[in-house]
Write a structure and sequence with these properties.
The structure holds 2 protein chains of 2 kinds. The longest helix of chain A is centred in the middle third of the chain and has 18 residues. Chain A has a single domain, classed as TIM Barrel. Chain A is of the alpha/beta class. Chain A is globular, with a radius of gyration of 18 Å. Chain A contains 9 helices and 12 strands. Chain B has 2 domains: 112 residues, no CATH class; 142 residues. Chain B has 12 helices and 5 strands. In chain B, the strands form 2 sheets. A 3-stranded antiparallel sheet of chain B has the order 2-3-4, sandwiched between helices. In chain B, strand 3 and strand 4 form a beta hairpin. In chain B, helix 2 packs across helix 4, helix 3 crosses helix 4 and helix 3 runs antiparallel to helix 6. Classes of the chains: A alpha/beta, B mainly alpha. The interface between A and B is large, with 46 and 45 residues.
């Protein structure tokens, strides 16, 4: 069975969230593209899948997952990967993205994105599992840099150097989360500019923007607020290095009306077009 | 000496679930919070995610208890039933049973004897929403059976169909919640007891009141042949309703004995 080519992804999209689905179907030009949380639809049926089909008829989509545990040591869940591949076929997703982290160990689930030590061994381990995933899915995937609240004594390199090595070894692309760069700068004293310098330009295929929860001495990557001003400033700098990179506004908790998300997307689109190569 | 990756990840998950580990010794010191405090951030994130998942499945139970009590209850529940599946829609399925024998801390729950059945109804609605789609009952195939085969058949409920018998007025409470988004001001005087069938009408979960005989029949349908059920006095009165249950999409297929 042949499939039509996936829809092109350009400009600034928003993350698809259930309370907004009906409005997005009724107003099909609301955003140039949408990012679908794959875990919300894998193995699903009924109303959710019906609505997803309607969304995919109206918008180009990408798939974004949080549960593959690419950096984990428990064997990859091949049933999950097969279901993800079926979902990608069904939605004609332009690409699939995941995170450079681990989520579970054995049966124990964290439902969070847990940090890896930045060592050569871990980079090889992560890259191997990404290759296995790409072989199963039949396509190159994107991996996202995660926010973190700690680092390990055993780390041998910076996050940027670590991910550059993984991108090289796995031959995959990067989803650059600018909010996570800023959160890590504040929480861990890392240098976002050093991170950007370490990443090969041709590997950056998507950018994420989101809001954090400010606890004073620490920032929580809660996706529950508008994008913060320092993150907008960093995004502008990132766009100079990676112009025309499709960008996405993420908002998961304390979800506002769709118009609020679209206003954030409009602000990002203004910056996106200002720095466009065109 | 650094931890092997698998050992580090095992300890991280243990720490998130509240166990004492030596992981903090392997975390780089940073200004501000200590390594242990930084690990606690992940623990709170995980607790918050599980609490939110539980609240999404059990909004009426949460409303009965109040947000603060429900949050404490969610933490205790998570200790007894930590998340073991990546799909959060599968988290919290043991809560109705857990509520029948809660820890001593929640002895006050004995004043809310209806709570377990109310949460059971919420779980059935949640499961009906996410249940696998089912094809329509193969009426032509059933009609093509011999008369003997027809009565030997065992009818199977659709994955979205669930049943609840309760001495408490949970249907009236749910109806009020549907109409007003709040609990009834008092539960006294509400219709009880209830026998309920939770099912999917089209794509949306629905609750239908049924007789006790119908509830018994539907509960035992998969285990016994129609011939056997027809001899049972506790379910016989509901047997004529079977075509209606099939028409309403509660029954998806039949199985013949070998």
């Amino acid at each position: 069975m042949s499939h039509p080519a996936p829809h092109p992804i350009h400009g600034v999209g928003i993350g698809l969230r259930t309370p907004h689905i009906t409005q997005l179907i009724q107003q099909p030009d609301s955003a140039p593209w949408l990012e679908v949380l794959s875990d919300n639809f894998i193995h699903q049926s009924g109303l959710d899948l019906h609505l997803l089909d309607m969304i995919c008829a109206a918008y180009p989509v990408t798939l974004h997952g949080v549960n593959l545990s690419l950096g984990g040591t428990t064997p990859l869940d091949t049933d999950y990967l097969q279901a993800l591949k079926q979902l990608a076929d069904r939605t004609q997703a332009a690409w699939i993205s995941e995170h450079a982290c681990f989520c579970h160990q054995g049966a124990a689930q964290s439902h969070d994105l847990l940090p890896l030590p930045y060592t050569a061994d871990t980079a090889a381990h992560l890259a191997g599992r990404i290759r296995q995933t790409q072989d199963c899915l039949g396509q190159r995937i994107l991996i996202e840099n995660v926010s973190a609240y700690l680092t390990y004594k055993s780390s041998e390199m910076s996050e940027g150097e670590f991910l550059a090595e993984v991108l090289h070894q796995a031959d995959c692309d990067l989803l650059l989360d600018v909010n996570n760069l800023y959160v890590n700068q504040r929480n861990l004293g890392t240098d976002p500019h050093a991170f950007i310098r370490a990443i090969p330009r041709e590997r950056v295929r998507e950018i994420h923007l989101a809001g954090f929860a400010d606890q004073g001495d620490i920032l929580i990557d809660a996706h529950n607020n508008p994008v913060a001003e320092p993150v907008w400033a960093l995004y502008q700098q990132v766009l100079h290095d990676f112009p025309d990179t499709p960008t996405l506004i993420e908002w998961d908790n304390d979800l506002p009306p769709l118009q609020t998300l679209l206003a954030q997307a409009t602000r990002a689109a203004d910056l996106y077009h200002q720095t466009s190569r065109q | 000496m650094s931890l092997p990756l698998a050992r580090l990840q095992h300890q991280f998950l243990q720490a998130i679930q509240g166990a004492e580990t030596s992981l903090a010794e392997h975390i780089a010191p940073q200004p501000g919070r200590t390594p242990t405090e930084r690990l606690h951030i992940y623990r709170r994130n995980s607790q918050s995610t599980c609490h939110n998942a539980l609240q999404a499945i059990y909004p009426m139970t949460c409303a009965v208890l109040g947000p603060a009590c429900f949050q404490t209850l969610a933490q205790h529940y998570a200790r007894d039933h930590p998340a073991i599946h990546w799909n959060l829609n599968q988290y919290g399925t043991e809560l109705p049973v857990w509520l029948t024998h809660p820890p001593d801390t929640f002895s006050a729950l004995s004043d809310l004897p209806y709570l377990s059945d109310l949460s059971r109804l919420e779980l059935l609605l949640h499961q009906a929403y996410y249940a696998a789609d089912a094809a329509a009952f193969p009426a032509a195939d059933y009609a093509a059976l011999t008369a003997r085969e027809q009565v030997q058949a065992r009818l199977q409920l659709t994955p979205a169909t669930g049943l609840l018998q309760t001495p408490w007025p949970v249907y009236a409470i749910w109806q009020h919640w549907q109409q007003h988004g709040t609990l009834p001001p008092t539960f006294h005087g509400l219709d009880a007891p209830d026998a309920l069938c939770v099912h999917r009408a089209g794509l949306q979960p629905q609750v239908s009141r049924i007789t006790n005989a119908a509830c018994q029949l539907l509960t035992q349908l998969a285990q016994h042949s129609l011939a056997t059920l027809a001899t049972r006095s506790d379910v016989a009165s509901a047997m004529p309703e079977l075509p209606d249950y099939i028409a309403r999409g509660w029954i998806s297929h039949f199985i013949l004995p070998r």
